[in-house]
TrEMBL record, chain A:
GO cellular component entries: plasma membrane
Membrane topology: Multi-pass membrane protein
Domain of life of the source: Bacteria
Species annotation: Amycolatopsis acidiphila
Keywords: Cell membrane, Membrane, Transmembrane, Transmembrane helix, Transport
Transmembrane region(s): 12-29, 101-121, 133-155, 201-219, 255-276, 305-327
Protein name (Swiss-Prot/TrEMBL): ABC transporter permease
SUPFAM superfamilies in the cross-refs: MetI-like
InterPro entries reported for this sequence: BPD_transp_1_N, MetI-like, MetI-like_sf
Length: 334, 554
């Protein structure tokens, strides 16, 4: 087993190396550079050239790359040119915002998706079912950012019942401990701050939840329709079990197996959707860092973020492989 | 059996989690301060995050805005004007040769850390800037480099001889600044936010000069990030990057009128539409540079759109290097004659914008009616093109995208209108659009790839050299010309010491430039600032350097 893990870890090294080369080269192929963005309106050609020299951006790209690699190996991802903070600190700071948003979105998608999917299946072919299918079709088809802007326009701008953007009202003066604002509100007993953070999460969470919600509804519906035709349901009926018991124990439970797999897959996609949602709702999470970094050509931040994301992805895959290996020993020898 | 065990484990884990949460809750008492009431807090929507809070290491408006509330400068500009008035200095006198400036300082002023402001503190700041070590630190001192040209030892991009020589604290409240040469930018440049006076104690305590560069990034010291210490009406409290807010609190020991609101909060909202929505939702009290297209709807919603006097220039750059025809002054004049600037100002720029005849706003000394004017005249443009043998001329016109500047709210629109005008007189225009941060400035200013291009400038202080000197003071790839007449006229103007002589010399330079047409001055436009109807006493200023301590709410 240990040999298998070591072998897989060693295999991950070239993957990461290739990824680092791709990220590095891609950034430098983008037109423009950080010097122009850093110096702003007062940039002169001389200043641009000097700053490029100072940052080592005028050196051959492979020399820049090896220097970068040398720093990364020692755990130094550099500092953001925009904020001046180390990239790791930025990631640590922004991580809670993204996780909090994604978590709320997922809860919304599950809490409303599964019951709706189930009800649609129960009323298969009737108005409610058709309406649900149509709604979910729209949910999948409408881009997240457009839906976000629409929600903001209606609920924040026109009706004024929810805040349009940000994570918390700036005048609230809340205490932050973990960076998860809702959790912080509970931990410190500042319930007004907690409620305010929740209010700020509602619109972005709805926007972000739109796609996973639609997917969950459709999978649940299809799965329930499938399961209720199964032999064991008929057996249960013939045994004289009551309908609620059959629905809960035999249909829903079995129908939820493919749904849970889908939820797992959607969680990964949620993080990608968070990039757009954070931009629309001005939430300083990882997606926001990424978008701003691209706009301003913040090489250190982008390199760090993309490589860390790649690292996490590779590690997660590795864990999955290892878990397969534990479950099915045949994998190890393949 | 197995599911039951799993369920039991889950229950146990849940109980453990709740227990841990309860312990954590008991340990985390609320640390929140008392805070001001809603009417005691002014919340302003900033368009970007500041780089840091040490004014000397900054050069952009978003970094300067909070700094301006916390720091004072020796001189400043009367609110709403570009007229120089005293700030930390009550009087300032140059020697006849312009090489010595004597400042009489305000008494009874204290820094936020309680240390006294005096001549020694002023000299400490000037000496600090001059003696700054390290290429990283020097490269971040953009304005210092521009004004003072060099350091005790040049390590960064400054290559010039230093203008600064020494500073003496003659007595507690008299500081004497000795320069190696006179410079036309003074005394106005002493009011630059970059040259704000910091507490020497805080600078030393928080290691203020320690800007470091590792690989392709910079890190700033504790002073710049967490402990900016000036003498201004507000003090630094916090910069919460997780919620993108900068909080300043009233300085109760301020030497002037105390701030009217106890708190001043900057909420960073990069997206302009989001700022507008936040204003509508009432979560911010105002924001800067609303899009001219929104003025009407903002006013309809009951907000105040405060228009500043115009203090910028939008120009159509002409690069003489790539196309030999552009070396002919008749062709350059033809381009100017072809453009309907009045129409441009009226249709594409905010109300209050006006067509330009020269490269200075009309409130800067040096602006003159004596310049050679090339007002809209398509037939004259055609004649000149014919005379120069340039009919059927084709030009690559570089236009920036993904950018809004006070002098060009929508460059693509403006570029389109100009291209139409040029086509109307027979010039073929090939528009090349490039993102502002995606190579536009590199291509236009450094590589000079264009034949003509759109660019502009917002002034830093009311000195003509800050405008025309910046554009045409020396040979640049952007314009690709080498004309000693223009260069000499400008360096001569910059060397004048008395305001009268300076004004006359810049008027002469403006005339020389208008005859040479190195570029086409297009418009000057007034950027606005928008606040809710409940906000009072915010005085919009042409330099876009508003100080918010006068603002009241309610």
């Amino acid at each position: 087993m240990l040999r298998f893990i070591i072998r897989r870890l060693l295999q991950a090294v070239p993957t990461l190396l290739v990824l680092s080369i791709l990220v590095f080269a891609w950034l430098r192929l983008l037109p423009g550079g950080p010097a122009g963005a850093l110096l702003g309106d007062k940039a002169t050609p001389q200043k641009l050239a000097d700053l490029n020299h100072l940052l080592g951006l005028d050196q051959p790209i492979f020399i820049q790359y090896f220097k970068f690699l040398g720093r990364v190996v020692t755990g130094n991802f550099g500092s953001s040119l925009i904020s001046g903070d180390s990239v790791l600190a930025e990631v640590g700071r922004s991580f809670p915002a993204t996780i909090e948003l994604s978590f709320f979105a997922l809860v919304l998608a599950i809490a409303f998706g599964i019951p709706l999917g189930y009800v649609a299946a129960r009323f298969h072919g009737r108005l409610l079912d058709n309406a649900t299918v149509l709604t979910t079709l729209i949910g999948v088809a409408v881009p997240v950012f457009f839906f976000g802007v629409l929600l903001k326009y209606v609920f924040a701008q026109k009706l004024g019942i929810l805040p349009p953007s940000g994570r918390q009202d700036v005048t609230i003066d809340a205490t932050h401990i973990t960076g998860f604002f809702t959790l912080d509100g509970l931990l410190t007993g500042e319930f007004d701050a907690f409620w305010d953070a929740v209010k700020h999460l509602i619109l972005p969470a709805i926007a972000l939840a739109s796609i996973p919600f639609a997917v969950i509804v459709r999978i649940t519906r299809a799965s329930v329709l499938d399961v209720q035709q199964e032999d064991f349901v008929r057996t249960a009926e013939s045994k004289g079990l009551t309908t609620p018991v059959i629905r809960r124990r035999h249909i829903l439970r079995n129908a939820l197996l493919p749904v849970s797999t889908t939820i797992g897959l959607q969680t990964g996609l949620l993080l990608a959707g968070a990039v757009l949602t954070e931009k629309v709702f001005n939430i300083p999470g990882l997606g926001y860092l990424l978008a701003q970094g691209i706009e301003r050509r913040d090489y250190p931040r982008l390199q760090g973020l993309l490589l860390l994301a790649a690292l996490v992805y590779v590690l997660v895959n590795l864990l999955v492989d290892i878990s397969y290996a534990i479950i099915d020993p045949r994998v190890r020898v393949r | 059996m197995l599911p039951q065990r799993v369920a039991r484990l889950r229950r146990l884990a849940l109980i453990g989690l709740v227990g841990a949460l309860a312990v954590a809750m008991s340990a985390c008492a609320s640390e929140r301060g008392s805070g001001g009431g809603a009417n005691d807090t002014f919340v302003f929507g900033a368009a970007g995050a500041p780089k840091n809070f040490d004014p000397i290491f900054n050069d952009d408006g978003e970094s300067f805005r909070p700094a301006r509330q916390m720091f004072d400068t020796l001189v400043t500009y009367k609110p709403g004007t570009t007229q120089l008035v005293g700030d930390l200095a009550t009087a300032w006198t140059p020697s006849p040769d312009g090489k010595t400036w004597t400042f009489t300082l305000r008494q009874g002023v204290k820094f936020h850390d309680g240390t006294p402001f005096n001549a020694a503190a002023v000299c400490f700041n000037f000496d600090r800037w001059y003696n700054m070590k390290g290429a990283a630190a020097q490269s971040q001192m953009i304005y210092y480099g521009d004004v003072f040209e060099g350091f005790a030892k040049n390590e960064g991009d400054a290559t010039g001889d230093p203008v600064y020589k020494s500073c003496q604290a003659k007595d507690d409240y008299t500081a004497v600044l000795n320069l190696n040469k006179a410079k036309g930018a003074f005394p106005d440049a002493f009011g630059l936010t970059s040259l704000s006076i910091s507490s020497p104690d805080a600078l030393k305590k928080y290691n203020a000069d320690n800007v470091t560069q590792s690989g392709d990034s910079f890190t700033y010291p504790e002073y710049a990030n967490d402990h900016p210490t000036g003498t201004g009406p507000y003090k630094f409290e916090s910069y919460d990057k997780t919620n993108k807010t900068i909080t300043l609190v009233r300085n109760d020991d301020y030497w002037g009128d105390k701030a009217k609101t106890a708190k001043l909060i900057f909420k960073i909202i990069e997206d302009e539409n989001a700022r507008k929505q936040e204003l509508a939702a009432g979560t911010i009290d105002g924001y800067d540079f609303p899009s001219p297209a929104d003025y009407a709807s903002l006013k309809d919603a009951g907000n105040q759109v405060l228009i500043r006097p115009a203090f910028n220039i939008l120009y159509l750059g002409i690069n003489q290097k790539n196309n030999p025809k552009l070396g002919d002054v008749r062709v350059r004049k033809a381009i100017e004659y072809a453009i309907n600037k009045d129409q441009l100002a009226k249709n594409k720029l905010p109300s209050g914008a006006y067509a330009q005849t020269q490269f200075l706003p009309n409130n800067v000394p040096g602006y003159t009616d004596a310049v050679e004017k090339h007002s809209y005249d398509p037939s004259q443009a055609k004649t000149l093109l014919q005379q120069a043998g340039a009919t059927g001329l084709t030009l690559n016109f570089y236009v920036p995208t993904e950018v809004t500047r006070p002098y060009m709210p929508n460059p693509v629109d403006i570029g389109g209108a100009i291209a139409d005008d040029l086509k109307a007189v027979g010039i073929n225009v090939n528009i090349v659009q490039e993102p502002w941060n995606g190579g536009y400035k590199d291509d236009v200013q450094k590589a000079g790839k264009q034949d003509i291009h759109l660019l502009g400038w917002t002034g830093d202080y009311a000195d003509a050299g800050n405008f025309v000197g910046t554009f045409f003071g020396r040979q640049k790839a952007e314009f690709g010309f080498n004309d000693p007449t223009v260069f000499t006229a400008l360096s001569n103007a910059d060397a004048q010491v008395t305001p009268e002589a300076k004004k006359a010399a810049y008027e002469q330079a403006s005339v020389a430039i208008s005859q040479y047409v190195p570029a086409v001055p297009l418009t000057s436009s007034p950027p606005a600032i928008v606040v809710k109807s409940t906000i009072h006493n915010l005085i919009p200023t042409p330099l876009t350097d508003e100080r918010f301590y006068t603002v009241t709410k309610g």
